[in-house]
C-alpha cells in the first residue's frame, strides 16, 4: 500500500476515537460501588453483533453470570450493569476510562483496545474468544440486488462503505490488494457505521458495502443485498473476543473467572439448543431469527468456543499492519495483550485442552421448518433442494455451505451451478465462476431451476 494516505473522514468511527480520548478524563472505577459490601460489575457488549452473544446478548438473557456471582459465597452482593453499544470503539473508551470492566468486540477493535489501553496507561487483556471462523467467512462484501457488479475488480472507481478499523475493513483492504486494486487509490472508501452503510447501499449512494456479522446476512435475507465477495476466500481467521481491564482482573480474578464460566455455559447452551438460542437473540435484538441462525446455528458461519487458539493469535499479529496503515494504532504487542490464564482456570486445564483440540463442524446444509424447534440436516445440496421443493410452504429458511469455501448462506440467495448431476451452491458469482472455469459443461442456473432439477 502507498505510504501517503488522506486524513480519515470525520465519521462515526473517527468520532468514536475522539470520544475515547475525551472519556479518559472522567476517571471512576466501575468494579466497586455502593457501601463496600456491594460490587457493581459493568459489562460492555454489542447486542446486534451476534458473534459475541455468548458474552453478551445470550449470556444476559440466560442469567448465568449473575448466578455464578451469587455462587461465589464471598459475602459480597454483586450487581451486573449490562451496557449495550453499536460498535467496539465506545466500549474501549469506557474501559480505558475505568467505567467498563469486561467488554466484547471483534478482532480489529480488540487490537485498538490493546493499543489505547497501553497508550493511556490503562492496559487491557484479551481473556477469551466468543465466535470465530478460521477462513474469514464472518466478513462479506455485498452490493445492491440489481447491481451489475460481479467481482471485486468491478469496484474500481466505485464508492464502498465500510467501518475503518473494523475486521470488515481489513477484509476489504486485503481482498482488493489480492484483486490487484489499490485500496487507497482505486475506490472511494466511505467510513460509515454499519447501519449508515446499509442505508447508503439501499439509496444508491454506495455501490458496495463491506461489513461484519450480521449485516451482510441480514441484508441478503431482507432482499436488500447480494453477496459480491466471500471473506473466506482470504483463508485468514476472523473472530470476536472478550477483553478485561488489567487492574480489574488483578483486583477481582474470581469475578472474571465467574464471567468466563458463565460464558462457557452460554456457549454450551448455544451448541445444545441452537434454534432456541437464535430465537432468544432475535427477541432481544429485533434481528430476524433466520439471519441470526445463519451465523450462530448448528452449522453456522461462526463457531463458538472461549478458548484462545494459537491460530487466532497469529491472525491478530497479521492484522496489526492493516491498522497501522490506517493510522489507528502503532505497533501492538499481541503476546502481552493475550492472557489465557483466567479462562484456563475457569474451565479447568483438561477441559481447556479439549476445547483447543476441538474444531468447527463439517459444513452441511440445514432446513428450518416453520414452527419447528429443530432444523433438519442434509448431507448434500441436492437432497436439501429436493426437500425444499416438496415442502415449499413449510420452509422457514434453508441454508447451504459454499461448495468451495464452506461459508453457509441462504439457499435462495446462493448462486447455483449445475455440474453434471451435481447441484452446487456458492455465496458469490466469483466463487461460482472459479468452479465453472475448471469444470467443462458446468453452468449457473436460477434457484427455481435448481429446485426443479432436484425434484
From TrEMBL:
Keywords: Signal. Gene3D superfamilies: Periplasmic binding protein-like II. SUPFAM superfamilies: NosL/MerB-like, Periplasmic binding protein-like II. Residues 92-277 form the SsuA/THI5-like domain. Residues 1-27 form the signal peptide. This is ABC transporter substrate-binding protein. The lineage of its organism: Bacteria, Bacillati, Actinomycetota, Actinomycetes, Kitasatosporales.
Amino acid at each position: 500500500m502507498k505510504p501517503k494516505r488522506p486524513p480519515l473522514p470525520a465519521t462515526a468511527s473517527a468520532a468514536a476515537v475522539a470520544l475515547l480520548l475525551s472519556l479518559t478524563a472522567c476517571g471512576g472505577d466501575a468494579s466497586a460501588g455502593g457501601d463496600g459490601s456491594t460490587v457493581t460489575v459493568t459489562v460492555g457488549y454489542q447486542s446486534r453483533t451476534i458473534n459475541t452473544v455468548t458474552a453478551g446478548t445470550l449470556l444476559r438473557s440466560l442469567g448465568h453470570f449473575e448466578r455464578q456471582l451469587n455462587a461465589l459465597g464471598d459475602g459480597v452482593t454483586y450487581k451486573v450493569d449490562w451496557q449495550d453499544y453499536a460498535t467496539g470503539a465506545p466500549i474501549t473508551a469506557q474501559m480505558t476510562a475505568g467505567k467498563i470492566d469486561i467488554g466484547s468486540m471483534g478482532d480489529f477493535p480488540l487490537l485498538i483496545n490493546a493499543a489505547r489501553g497501553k497508550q493511556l496507561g490503562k492496559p487491557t487483556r484479551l481473556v477469551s474468544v466468543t465466535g470465530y471462523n478460521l477462513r474469514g467467512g464472518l466478513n462479506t462484501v455485498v452490493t445492491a440486488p440489481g447491481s451489475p457488479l460481479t467481482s471485486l475488480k468491478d469496484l474500481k472507481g466505485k464508492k464502498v462503505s465500510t467501518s475503518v478499523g473494523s475486521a470488515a475493513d481489513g477484509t476489504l483492504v486485503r481482498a482488493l490488494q489480492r484483486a490487484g486494486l489499490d485500496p487507497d487509490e482505486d475506490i472511494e472508501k466511505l467510513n460509515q457505521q454499519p447501519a449508515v452503510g446499509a442505508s447508503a447501499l439501499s439509496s444508491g449512494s454506495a455501490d458496495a458495502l463491506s461489513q461484519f456479522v450480521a449485516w451482510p446476512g441480514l441484508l441478503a435475507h431482507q432482499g436488500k443485498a447480494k453477496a459480491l465477495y466471500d471473506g473466506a476466500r482470504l483463508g485468514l481467521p476472523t473472530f470476536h473476543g472478550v477483553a478485561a481491564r488489567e487492574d480489574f482482573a488483578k483486583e477481582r480474578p474470581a469475578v472474571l473467572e465467574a464471567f468466563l464460566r458463565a460464558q462457557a455455559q452460554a456457549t454450551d447452551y448455544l451448541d445444545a439448543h441452537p434454534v432456541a438460542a437464535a430465537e432468544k437473540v432475535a427477541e432481544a435484538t429485533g434481528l430476524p431469527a433466520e439471519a441470526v441462525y445463519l451465523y450462530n446455528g448448528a452449522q453456522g458461519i461462526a463457531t463458538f468456543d472461549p478458548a484462545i487458539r494459537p491460530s487466532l493469535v497469529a491472525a491478530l499479529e497479521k492484522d496489526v499492519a492493516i491498522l497501522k496503515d490506517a493510522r489507528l494504532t502503532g505497533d501492538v504487542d499481541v503476546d502481552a495483550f493475550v492472557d489465557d490464564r483466567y479462562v484456563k482456570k475457569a474451565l479447568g486445564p483438561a477441559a481447556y485442552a479439549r476445547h483447543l483440540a476441538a474444531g468447527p463442524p463439517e459444513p452441511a446444509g440445514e432446513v428450518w421448518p416453520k414452527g419447528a424447534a429443530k432444523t433438519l440436516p442434509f448431507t448434500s445440496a441436492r437432497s436439501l433442494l429436493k426437500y425444499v421443493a416438496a415442502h415449499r410452504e413449510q420452509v422457514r429458511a434453508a441454508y447451504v455451505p459454499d461448495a468451495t469455501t464452506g461459508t453457509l448462506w441462504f439457499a435462495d440467495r446462493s448462486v447455483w451451478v449445475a455440474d453434471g448431476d451435481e447441484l452446487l451452491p456458492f455465496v458469490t458469482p466469483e466463487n461460482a465462476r472459479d468452479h465453472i472455469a475448471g469444470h467443462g459443461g458446468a453452468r449457473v442456473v436460477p434457484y427455481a431451476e435448481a429446485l426443479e432439477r432436484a425434484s
